[in-house]
Amino acid sequence: MASFARSLRPLVRTLPPRTQRRVAIPRICHNSRLLSCTVFRRQEVIDLTSLAPTPISHFSETEHMMADSVSKFSQEVILPKVREMDEAEAMDPGLVDQLFEQGLMGIEIPEEYGGAGMNFTAAIVGIEELARVDPSVSVLVDVHNTLVNTMILKYGTVESREKWLPKLATETVGSFCLSEPSSGSDAFALRTKAEKTADGYRINGSKMWITNAMEAGLFIVFANLDPSKGYRGISAFIVDKDTKGFSIAKKEQKLGIRASSTCVLNFDDVEIPRGNLLGEEGQGYKYAIGILNEGRIGIAAQMTGLALGAWENAARYVWNDRQQFGQLVGTFQGMQHQIAQAYTEITAARALVYNAARKKEAGQDFVMDAAMAKLYASQVAGRVSGSAIEWMGGMGFVREGIAEKMFRDSKIGAIYEGTSNIQLQTIAKLLQKQYTA
Q1: pLDDT for the residue 45
Q2: Would residue 230 be called left, alpha or beta, if left means φ above 0 and alpha means ψ between -120 and 50 degrees?
């Protein structure tokens, strides 16, 4: 299949002078394998006062191209492999290679490092489109882009960016290692420890529920360098898969997203060089909080994509194939009302997702928006995928199609990267702060 870059052409946004310097201006990349647009990365907040209001769901031409290209790739390349990967509980290695070839593993990585240099919303678009066909593939791309790549971009030294970003863009899957057996929702009760050595650091401990572990070559590991300081002793480190003392102890068998690997990791006197510290010592907890806020938008996009994929699959079936009492099931008023209600909820969830993404890009406070998007999108995904099975009857219950798989896959949305109760707590705390005199 041709790479996405062939569908891109030089684009110029007509923007007021005050904003033109601070946003993406897409252009074709000399490397035909990759999506491409140049991104001007600024720390300051984008000035939006001179921009005309647009719908939340409005996509730039580049984002539209991303959606169309990923949709085509998903239908032609991923869909034929979905059932086989789910049954085998393993990601197809060839498919992972194709994700790199198509530029989907380096969406926000600048072109100078071999990435596509696109904006955050473009990554969200890609994650959503992948999930319409297979949420397992979607979460592999999501974690790699929104957590791992972003951590290296934000907190890596010049040397670590030059070493790792080209690999992450073209060949090396990344994994984010925070959770442990005793620290799930209480993420900072972790017990994995790090200590200084003459040449760098030594890590001991274990991690649990780690996504992308089987495929990854790079792991961002959070460990406590000074337990006496509590969570303020937590630091972040880059660990290469081939480092002595690192091992994958167990691959979990799961209810859903079964092709996505989830593993237990062990660290037994893992020695890493000083340059593998990510950011500053003792700042790991701040990095994790910040990056997970962004990551929740990605998970919300995964859930809206899942819901839309489940809805489309069922709607086509009841409007074209399934008949009862001499008419298509989808023509009964009771069924039509359910279909309309479900689509309305999907659209509302997508509005929350893209509003959070746009606020993040604009440099505005998006923490509550991300929490609401993840909470509601996961709820909608569960309701819609469950209803879709009922609409399809026996064909929804058997494992011939994707309906039952989407239902199983939806459950994880309420669990990882912050449970639904954690999202509710975050929303409530922020509202209480706003409304308390």
Answers
A1: 63
A2: left
Domain span including residue 234: 175-283
Same domain, 272 and 290: no
Q: Are 2 and 71 in contact (CB under 8 A)?
A: no
Which of 381, 360, 380, 382 shows the shortest CA–CA distance to 369?
360
Q: Find where tokens 């002793």 sit.
A: 233
Query: For 136-159, how does the pLDDT look when each residue is reduced to its tens digit (9 = 90+)?
Result: 999 999 999 999 999 999 999 999
Active-site annotation holder among 111, 128, 215, 417: 417
What is the tally of structural domains in the chain?
3
* pTM (two decimals): 0.89
d(CA 413, CA 382): 8
Query: Which tokens is 347 given?
Result: 């659209």
**C-alpha torsion 336→387→318→81, nearest 10:** 140
User: For this structure, is 87 an active site residue?
Assistant: no
Strands (E), 304-418: 323-324, 327-328
Integer Cα distance of 201 and 195 in angstroms: 5
